[in-house]
Amino acid sequence: MSSTAVRRTLLYLALLAGALVSVAPYLMTLNASFKTTQGMFSTQAWTPAHPATFSNFSSLWSKYDMSGFMVHTLIVSVAITIGQVVFCSLSAYAFARMEFPGRDLLFWGFVATMMVPQIVTLVPLFFIMSKLELADTYRALILPYVFGTPYGIFLVRQYFRTIPPDLEAAARIDGAGTWTILWRIILPLSRPILATLATVTFVNSWNNLLWPLMITSSERTTVITVGISALQGQFASQFNIVLTAAAVALVPLIAVFLLFQRHIVRSIALTGLK
Fold this sequence. Notes:
This protein is mainly alpha-helical. It is built from 14 helices and no strands. The chain has one domain: MetI-like fold (Orthogonal Bundle), CATH 1.10.3720.10. Helix content is 77%, strand content 0%.
């Protein structure tokens, strides 16, 4: 076997090991959702459920408002995702294509706020929402994130800069305005990065715990992460119920990734080619 084949084999083995380490917790969570309480404590985490039971799912839906929590989370996540795709695209186009005084200084100053931990802004945000009488509402969950984030604007702006300026110049010669160029040229060419931004935003919104835990206090606005957190207290000794809830919460994230994975891979490939 040649040295190239040996290196390639070792590389694939390392990638396989990394994939197994990454996927193992999710497989164990799914496996645990089919175990009884006794089976959880009498077997190893990787031991297949035998016999498999669906009683955990029925108990979860009958004793706990899991469907309501998922609907709340879906509403918030979809609203934030749509808002970020729209506003990040507008901001990114301004920073990538338009000329105005202090553009680069403003952009890099805005991007620098990514270094500020989220915990620093939680208390001011809480007071702002309380003063506006928005606490425990969908608006309080959505407004802090819907108008874009430094990461999202940076991601889309860098992609916009890879689009040849000649396309925009040709469109302006044909009489196209800024909105026409953005809508009919830039955005159609940027579908891969917009799909990536939508996926990342949806996953982050779905998994967000700290802010919803602070700003909500009733079941009518409780999201899935807060619901599972409360579930850990209610079913502290029944880890199979808690892990069943975690497995249910994973389903929408897997569906979103499978839906947009082609665009995500394409965006990474195109960025790498640039």
